[in-house]
Specification:
The chain has twelve helices and 22 strands. With 402 residues, it is α+β, with helices and mostly antiparallel strands.
Length: 402
């Protein structure tokens, strides 16, 4: 089997910040491809063509270059890309692009772990270029890509079931509380400082400037919470640590179980998650906001869904979403927003309903994790040339469902 470097197979070009003022007079429209478009087509955005834009075709591979989702891979897309993406253009037509794109997806975590930048990660071009791709014949590449697509379909169906559970929770929220912007049920309204705990650091943005640099990190110690945790509502990942002296210096940014953390930069601006009971002792990084609520006034579960509401997100981030790397608004603005504050008993009732629905969601997640684990094993076999296939069907018993 041939093996080639990505740098030998592709040229790599970084996207540019899209400037509407540079649109040409013809008013031709083109798809504006952003990081979320690398995953699905749920939110297609069309913009006017500009003369100096970076345009891509369906034969190119795209990669998220900057931000918490750096390393995310997409392909079979046509349009213009912004400054957070890069395009890999094939030097020849000797290989099947979907096969190489799927191989690169298997390297997404590796690319993310080798990013530069502690606050906003950036792909290292040399690391990407040096990745070696195993290349069987063109027909075998097509066959492997087809098998992987079938496996991915199973995962997508399970993810769709999980999405429907999320939609159910939103329906319950709407039924119990109505539109929080219109305040359909005339609930009392309070500003953020009125329903956080009395703790001095109940509302705290992460440390700025040079307070946290990569050369300060150690192999073990106090965890540095980052955007990944807020974006994915997942707390097992532990990448950066600081020692005891640095922890004491930055103790104002300490994270406690039950705190809420909010993503403050990039396209995932405004994602919110609750720190679990068994969370590691640590601090938030520069790209997070920490909120500690007074549970007698505002319930964590209720507030998470309130904060995620499109209307609240638009008030907070409506303007920022159009910029290259969106950022959190000034804290004075955040503290001045009016949030509906239903009776705490009603909030707690909602939280109980959510917890029951989450039981079903958890079982779906476990099934999804099993499918994804099998998929990773399938990837390893496929790219090592060990996948047993006959007439387009995997013969390995472990993957018989595919």
């Amino acid at each position: 089997m041939r093996v080639r470097r990505i740098g030998d197979l592709f040229t790599i070009a970084k996207g540019k910040k899209y400037e509407e003022t540079q649109a040409n007079d013809a008013n031709e429209m083109v798809r504006y491809i952003q990081i979320e478009d690398l995953r699905n087509d749920n939110n297609i955005k069309m913009v006017n063509k500009i003369d100096n834009g970076v345009y891509v075709t369906s034969n190119d591979v795209l990669i998220a270059w900057d931000g918490a989702n750096a390393g995310t891979i997409g392909y079979n897309l046509t349009g213009i890309i912004g400054s957070t993406l890069a395009v890999l253009r094939p030097r020849d037509s000797n290989n099947y692009i979907p096969y190489i794109a799927k191989f690169l997806r298997s390297k997404s975590l590796f690319l993310r772990e080798n990013c530069t930048g502690a606050t906003i990660p950036h792909i290292q071009k040399k690391v990407l270029e040096d990745i070696e791709v195993p290349l069987p014949s063109f027909e075998q590449q097509k066959e492997i890509a087809y098998i992987l697509d079938k496996a991915q379909t199973l995962i997508d169906k399970r993810q769709d079931a999980i999405s429907k559970i999320d939609e159910l929770i939103l329906a319950v929220f709407w039924d119990m509380f109505g539109d929080p912007i219109k305040n359909d049920y005339s609930f009392c309204k309070k500003k953020l400082p009125d329903f956080v705990s009395k703790d001095k650091y109940a509302i705290k943005r992460g440390p700025f400037g040079g307070a946290l640099k990569k050369d300060m990190f150690v192999k073990n110690g106090y965890l540095v919470y980052e955007q990944y945790h807020a974006i994915n509502d997942e707390f097992t990942m532990a990448r950066y640590f600081i020692d005891g002296d640095k922890f004491e210096e930055l103790k104002a940014f300490e994270v406690f179980p039950g705190d809420l953390i909010v993503s403050c930069s990039g396209v995932t601006l405004g994602r919110i998650a609750e720190v679990p009971r068994d969370a590691k002792k640590g601090i938030i990084n520069q790209a997070l906001l920490k909120i500690t609520l007074d549970q007698n006034i505002m319930n964590n579960t209720f507030f998470k869904y309130l904060f995620r509401h499109e209307g609240i997100q638009n008030i907070l981030f409506g303007v920022s979403r159009g910029s290259g790397i969106p950022n959190f608004p000034p804290m004075e603005q955040v503290k001045d927003i009016d949030f509906i504050t239903p009776p705490i008993e009603l909030q707690r009732k909602f939280a109980i309903i959510v917890s029951k629905i989450e039981v079903q969601k958890k079982s779906y997640y476990q099934s999804l994790q099993h499918l994804e684990s099998n998929f990773q094993a399938l990837l390893q076999k496929a790219f090592k040339g060990e996948l047993k296939v006959k007439d387009g069907v995997v013969t390995d018993e472990r993957f018989a469902v595919i």
